[in-house]
Every structure is written in structure tokens, then in C-alpha cells.
Amino acid sequence: MAVSTLAAPSRARVARGGPLERQANRLFWPFVGPALAFYGLLFLAPIIFAAWTSLYRWDGMGEMKWRGLDNYRTLIDDQSFHYAVLNTIKILVVGGVATFAVSFALTLALREMWGKMFARSVLFFPCLVNALVFGIAAGFLFGPDGPVNKVLHLIGIDVVPKWLSVDNLPAMIIATIVWTATGYYTTIIMAAVDQIPTYLYEAAELEGANAWQRFRHITLPLSWEVVSVCAVLWTVSSVKVFEIVLLFGGGATTNDAPIQTWTTAMYVYFSAFPRSSVPKLGLAAAAAVVSLVMVGLFVLVLRRIMRRERVVL
Amino acid sequence: MRGPKVTAVLAAGALALTACGGGSGSESKSSGGEFTYWSMWKENEPQAKVIKAAIDKFSKETGTKVDVEWQGRDIRTKIGPAIAANKAPDLVENGFDVINSLLVSTGQAMDLTPVYNSEVPGEGKKVSDVIPAKYLDAMPKDPDGVTRWIVPYVLNSAMYYYNKADADLATTPATWDDFVKLCDTLKAKAKACVASDGDNTWTNFLLLDYLLVRDNGPGTLGKIYADKTGAGWDQPGVLESAKKIEQLVKGGYLLKGYDASKYPAQQTNWATGKAAFHLDGTWVPSEASKNLASGFKVGEFAVPTTKGGNTEIDIIPLGFAIPKKAKHAEAAQKFIAYFLKKDNLTGISTEAENMTPREDIPAPEQLTDAQKLLTENPSRLPLDGVPGDYLDKGIAPAFNDLWLGKATAEQFVAKAKQGHINFWKANG
User: Fold this and answer.
1) Nearest to A227 by CA among A262, A267, A199, A190
2) In what order do the strands lie in the sheet with B298-301?
């Protein structure tokens, strides 16, 4: 991506000579301008406003009081923010590795499977279901007398984990996210894999490559660009994880989800719209800025790590 | 070419109609004024139906136009932005805790003393005569020292619920020792004593909150909260209260599975008769009514007293408030007084099955004991009205360890103190 944005203007400069290119150059700003203006108004301006707000104490109604960097200091001291950052990173890294491992495994299996279109639809299904359903279903399925424990008892396992206890909630949440996301990423990756000509696989098979080698030397390199886009999508979406935590953590009751399960998105929400505390929009903005920087850094590093020469067939 | 002409005629007709409508509207406006009202109920909820009936009558009698929006619980995220945009509704409603944090501590709530001094239409009594002062004096003060910023029309509380038809529970425990003894008797009969959902922290904490005042006197948690050093946690009485929780947990009196259940699973188990008692807000009897075992007759008793002798009962009022920036406050104030009329407010008890703050309106049948307890005992706010933040961030992690049997009372006190200090470090 970085390469192409750098390349465009230099190509334009080189091409200055031709009349067609000169015309195209003249149209550059009229075409880009409106989009840029919209982008600035709808994305950059709010970000700048958030960064500015993060320097104040503000209840959203009254006067804004200057705090300088105190909101950021609060974040450093606030244990619930530590949990939030840690959980977000856990979802991003642990959840990410698990999601992509499962997606690749499924890709391997699905490529040659009979009835793969049907299997794909089944895999994609959880992605269509509202997180609300999982939150409610979890309380029923994993309750002390729920079906999951009953089945475990039937097969002779009596020491069952306390699925829904606060300690296990983060793991349960990550597992649910992985389950719902897997189908989504498998579908995208499969679309890329479908484009790979079958003769490559046939040739590899003739030369005695096993399934793993075919994956390692054909599937992965030829779908790499799509995979790296998926990785960025995953990073961005994992920073926004919100409703599933709210529902798992008992957000429907009189208390908020336990801080041990918070993500940065929840921290922002509970700071801005607390149930029975004064709203702290400055603090919410500071947390939002921190998570923006965090996701920005992750994407940057990820893009660097995943940069490869494009394989052209 | 016919199309545009027809549209033009229609448009003209519509304009004429709206002009007519506008005319009659402004007429009624001049006679009785108007105000906007944001409700915390959705239109199909029983409370909304009672309020709507009162609005219709009020409009007819006074000629006031009431522009009501049934916002539902989302209202708490909408009031702030509306005030910031100078489009504040003239009348809002919510639980005292939400109004307190959103409007009162930010200095945005109007002093409603004039409402309390005004007459309940047709009753010859003032509003302050029908709403006992003890329900209002407990309210936190706003920056100007005002406590009359809410006019409650629902009065919730928190107490133990049990089945009056159960012969084992014929006498309810008055003291903590009686309570434990009864739990033991039940245990011998293989019956669980108390139901609780492990994830329902606020509700579970109600017991420790009550025990803190029973053992140490009024306002204990409030005082602990206010002392930023955390020294409040070191009082011997605090440990004593925590030990009672430990006793309950270690004694195995809590219905099994509570430490891994999700609300309302165990509440439902209580309703079906799997545990004797359940401590929560007075909304539980109507919430659980669908699941009640046959012959179940809901009754209430207060969290038992200890040597400290304190008998305070939690009040969780829910009612009207007016933002300072409201443009039609006067009309809204008139409606508040009107709604408190006995014939309006009775619907809150009979239709919506909530208690009202008026002692002359009988509570719904399943809350008769609760109303009696509220009338006869001094009042307090749950958690002494400390911000929800403090429970979530400061104490909840420590309390959950205690409640779920992972920590002793001593460990709880130490961890709560640390959480308290961390809370003030971040929020001081």
C-alpha cells in the first residue's frame, strides 16, 4: 500500500510530457478534493476534536476544565484500563492466532472437500448472528445445570470448569469471538485460494509434496496479499470488540460487566456513559486516542512484517 | 404531464391541512402552555401506560400540550448531549442514581422545592405532605446544597424475599444469629438457604452494604469512600461485617452453582423453590412472577440486625427531574404535582406493580411487607449513594473473591483497601 501511494505522484511527474497526462494532472485535485474534504470532515476532524477533548475534564454539558495530560496519567493509574488494554491485546494476538490457524486448517480441508459450498455457508453462519444471541445462549448453555455440563456428566466428566465465573470469562469471550470470526475469514481466504490454478497443486502432487508442503509453498504465497489484508481487518475489528463482552459480563443487569473483562472500547463507553457516575468525556477521549495509536502501531508493524514481493504467475 | 399538477394540488392541500393543524395547536398552547417530556419507559411498558393516561387527562384539563418521547433506558445516554446542544427536554425521569450522577453532581438539575410547596391538585395537601421527607433527606446534595432535585413516583427498595407458604420459613429471622441458625436448619433438611447469581455483583454487594451499616452505623460505606487514604477499611467493624459474608459462603448456605451462574439463572431457581431466600431490589417479585412455583406467596423481610442495632432500609427512588436549561419548567412542574394525585399514582401500584412513595397507596400484594418495612424504619441509600465507578473499579474485584469463596474476610479487606487506594490514585 505504502509503495503504491509513493509511486503514483512520481509516475505523474515523469509523465508530464504527454497532453493526456497533463489533462489528467489538472483533474487530480477536482477529483481528489471532495473525497479528501469529506474524509477530513468526517474522520480527521473528530479525531482532532477527541485529542483536544482528552486534555480536559468534561461532563459533556458544562464547562470544559483544562487537565493537560492528567487524563493520560489517570489511564496509567487506572487498573480497569490495564485490564482493558491487556484484554484487547489478548483478543488481538491470542484470538488472532487462533482464528487464522483454524481458518487455514479449514482452508486446507475445504479446498478439496465434497460439498464445500455448503460447508462454507455453515461456517459463515455464526458471523451473521447477532452477538446478543451468544451472550444469552452462553448463560443457558454453560450454566451450572446447563446442557454442556449435562453432556459432560453423561460421558463421565464430573469435575467441570466454572465456565461463567469471572476468571474464565475472558477466555470464553475470546473463544466465542474466534468461533464467530473464523467463518468470515475462511470465506475471504477461500475466495483467494479458489483463484489459484489447480495445475500448480497437480504438479506439486506429482512431485510428491504432502498437504502441508502444498499449503506452505502454494496456498500461502499465492493468497498472501489477501491474508495480510485479513490480518489488518482482524486488528481493526479486535480493537472494537464491545457488545459481546457487555453481554457475557452481565451488562443487562444492574451492574456493568466486571472490569476483568473490559476491552478498550468498553472502557471508552463506560467512561463516557457510566451508569451511576459523572460522565468523563475527557478520559473517554484519552482512552480512545490511546487505542487509536495502539491499533495504528499494530497495523504498521503488521504491514511491515507481512510485506512480501508479489508473486506473479 | 398530469403527474406534477396532481402533486402540486396534493402539496397545497397538505400545506393547508398543516396550516389548520398549526392554528388549533397554537390555540391550545396559549391557554395552558407546553413542555417536552422524555420518559425512561417504552410506550408498551405498564408504567408508560399509566403515565400516558395521566398526560391525556392533564392535557384535557389544563390545555397543556405535552410532547412526550418514550425513550426507554437509553435516555441516560441522550440527556447529556441534548443539554449540551441547548435542546434539553423540560422533564426527564430515572432512578435517583442516574439523575444524581448525570444532572445533580454536574449542577444541571433544577431545585424542585417549588413543586414540593405546591398543592396536589384537588387534594388540599402539598406535595411535601404526601411524600415523606425521610425519602428525600437521604439524597446527595447538588453543588448548591439542594436535596430536592427529584420527585419520586416509584419507591423501590432491597430486601430478602421468601415464600410465605413454606412452613419451614414461618418465622423470619430478626437477627443475624437467627438467620444463620435458620440456614443451618434448612441445610439439615438439604435445602439451600440463599440464592445468588455470581455475576450480579451489585446485587450480591447489597448484603455487605447492609451489614456494614448494621454493624457500624449509618453511612459507613460513604465514610470509607470519602477517606482517600483507605483507612476506613481498617476499622474492626468492617472486618466483622466481611466475616459474616465469609461465614455465609464457607457455611455452604448459598445455592450451589452460584459462582458460575449468569443472572437471572439463580433468581429463577429461587422462584421455583430451590433456595429459601433471595436478596435484591423490589422489582424481583414481578420479574420472577412467571417462574414462581405453584402456591408460592412472596413475602419480604429486612436484612437481619446485628449487635449494632441499626434497622435502616434501602430506598431506591425513581422519579422526575427538570434540567436547569429547560425552557418550559413551569408547565413540567405542574404536571409533576398533577401526576402525584392519588388517582393517577395508584396505577403505578395496581398496573405497573411498583411501590409508590405515597403511604396512602397500598403496595402491590406481593410487596405488602416491603411497604411496611419502609414505613416503619429509617431510610438510607444503597451503597450510601457512592458513584458506581467506585464499586466497579475499587471494590468489585475484591468483593467477588470474597463472595465466590476465593478469599477470606481478611484478604478481602486488604484487597479492597488496595483497590480503594488505586481508585483514588486514578480519580483523585
Assistant:
1) A190
2) B192-195, B275-281, B158-163, B298-301
Span B26-50, mean pLDDT?
Answer: 83
Please check the confidence at residue B223 and state whether its pLDDT lies above 70.
yes
Query: Which residues of chain B make contact with A59, given a CB cutoff of 8 A?
Result: 80, 106
Task: Decide if A278 touches B, using CB distance below 8 A.
Answer: yes
Cβ-defined contact of B199 to A276 (cutoff 8 Å):
no
Report d(CA B332, CA B336) in Å as an integer: 6
Q: Do A250 and B262 touch (CB under 8 A)?
A: yes
At residue A254, the pLDDT reads: 52
Contact residues on chain B for A138, CB-CB shorter than 8 A: 262
Instruction: Name which of B83, B108, B389 is nearest A274 (Cβ-Cβ).
Output: B389
CA distance B79 to B88: 7
> Model ipTM?
0.86
Cβ contacts of B399 on chain A, cutoff 8 Å: none
Q: B313: distance to nearest CA of chain A, Å?
A: 19
CA B380 to each of CA A300, B137, B330: distance values in angstroms, whole numbers, following the listed order:
54, 9, 30
**Among A7-11, B25-29, B112-116, which range has the highest average pLDDT?**
B112-116
How many Cβ atoms sit within 10 Å of the Cβ of residue B320? 23
pTM for this predicted structure: 0.88
Pull the grid cell for residue A298.
499494530
- How far is A251 from chain B, CA to nearest CA, in Å? 9
